Amino acid sequence: MATDRDGLARRARELGVAVSYRDWRGREVEVGTETLAAVLAALGDAARPAASPAAKVAGEPERAPRPDGRSWGFTVQLYSLRSRDSWGHGDLRDLAELAAWSGRELGAGFVLCNPLHAAEPVPPVTASPYQPMSRRFLSPLYLRVEDVPEYARLSAAHRERIDALATPLRARNATGELIDRDAVWAAKRAALEILWAVHDDRDAGQEFRAQGGQALDDWATWCALAEIHGSDWRAWPVPLHDPRSSAVAAARRQLAGRVDFHAWLQWLASEQLAAAQRACRQAGMSIGVVGDLAVGAHPGGADAWAGQDVLVSGVSVGAPPDEFNPRGQDWALPPWHPRRLAALGYRPLAGLIGGVLREAGGIRMDHVMGLLRLWWVPAGMTPDRGTYVYYDHEAMTGVLAGQAAQAGAIAIGEDLGTVAPWIRRYLATRGVLGTSMLWFERAADGSPLPAAAWRRDCLATVGTHDVPPAASFLTGEHVALRAGLGLLTRSEAAERADAERAVAAWRDALAAQGLIPGDGPGQMPSAAEFTVALYAFLARTPAALVGVSLTDAVGERRPQNLPGTIGEYPNWRIPLAGPDGRPVLADDLPAHPGIRAIAAVMPKIDGEFYGLD
Questions:
Q1: What average pLDDT does this structure show over 352-362?
Q2: CA distance 410 to 403
């Protein structure tokens, strides 16, 4: 057995597979023999990837542009931000209007939204924006139907049909009901089919179609086939498994009308996103829309179908155990094959990043450590039994920095969790901003890290979409929620005691800064006051960017996502609401007291503060 282990370890090192790693507590963990064998089998007969000449920059390595001074902006799960006119699901017009008033009235410099990646063309529609069918293209769920050019030319009868589709969904905006993507897409798709039927300008979008090339044709073809055979290509007839087969070519010709329809939807989405970015810049935003790139795509989706030559089967991407997710995470996403990606000159990666930046002023790369290493979880194993597989970090980061430089856009990397210090240092040398989350920023003794000690090159936030809102931390509701769902690895009492100590430590830190009253040992501000104070603390850090979560600003207590759950919790389906659970619509945000209070303490470009009347 020892000999087998030694041989596996030697081969693993040759292929860039970790045989041990340091966990979030700094302890050395040895990777199991079964794990090494499974990962090596998935890699196949491959040498460690050599650097691709196509991915190298002659001379000085390219850097992503730095932000123009300090800036702040809202972070939003766009599907949850519904206006009175949206169809039960936030859309690109809602994004444009959020950007317009927050830039013009509050001085915000950007708006960061969840991945807008493409979902299934037929129900059921996956709820998670982080498990799309394609990362290269946009979800038509975010289209505002009334902004499609053909809508203005519709007959009265056609408009009545579309209004009849929209009315029941608009009625849901004023209720606390969960977001129903299947119902939203059924209605929007029916409306878009009406608009497509009267579409008579066949030249519209042709330049976009030509620029999209093979990637757009693959996406549109996959959609047309999915309408017939379902949204998981692995269950299709075998002749259709190969996107370059004669069977697929024949199907593409036979389904040409449907292929054209889905390509047209992409053009519409791109145009509406471009309009949102124009609204940002017209409102004075220095950055504008910051798009989010998910770490991977669904193994049965379009990217996996078209990219079989560069993705690995038999394993999935995840994360090792950490403080908030003690069981680790399995995201059920196939990883890049290091050698195959290098052999293609990293063009698939460049295409994804370039696609996000086409109509945006910045990109946030989810789990940016994936440019350097990914946590691979073999099929059938729990997430804590995975291991790291390393990539050519110079080439991978070079692609990100190069695409950002070419677009004149900023690059932000989500580098939370278990991250070796050298990774953050290296990304900073390439102009990639990190992400510093308040709950995780601690001094060596475990106390809150002083504001002045925070790094400059980062987006500073209170939380993320994967942790509870600020109000939930203050009340401890998040502990009861996770305990009730069986997500704790120790007793609820122990978890609650730690949570109370963390809140007390932050209460003392905020009081020491004069951000909340400090009279008396048991003094506790309201949830709204506590939240404003946390953001005022962020404004005192040197962070280049400060992100304000809309859920925090309106007092929401429910997390958007609970890692470790699938059907046990309504992940990604919760509409924006206040502490009482009543919906907060986009139309009401400009006058919302929580929004105004937090905006009042946000940093100006020159590092001072806004004072709002």
A1: 96
A2: 10
SS3 358: coil
For residues 151-166, give the mean pLDDT.
96
Tokens read off for 316: 């999935």
Whether 51 contacts 23, CB under 8 Å:
no
By DSSP bridging, strand 71-76 and strand 110-113 are: parallel
Residue 275 predicted with pLDDT over 60: yes
Q: Which residues pair with 376 in a beta bridge?
A: 317, 387
Q: Which of 371, 214, 400 is nearest to 295 (CA)?
A: 371
Distances (CA, A) of 511 to 115, 151, 520: 36, 55, 11
> Got the DSSP string for 469-526?
-HHHHHHTHHHHHHHHTT--SS-HHHHHHHHHHHHHHHHHHHHHTTSS---STT----
265 CA to centre of own chain: 22
Backbone torsions φ then ψ of 110, nearest 5 degrees: -160, 170
d(CA 312, CA 119): 21
Cis bond leading into 67, ω under 30°? no
Task: State the amino acid at position 350 in one-letter form.
Answer: A
Q: How many CA atoms lie within 13 A of 565 on its CB side?
A: 21
Does the pTM exceed 0.85? Answer: yes
CA distance 39 to 374: 12
Q: What is the pLDDT of residue 24?
A: 81
Give the helix, strand, coil percentages of the chain, each rounded to 5.
Answer: 45, 15, 40
pLDDT greater than 70 at residue 96? yes
Which pLDDT value is given to residue 612? Answer: 35
pLDDT tens-place string over residues 166-221: 999 999 999 989 999 999 999 999 999 999 999 876 667 888 999 999 999 999 99
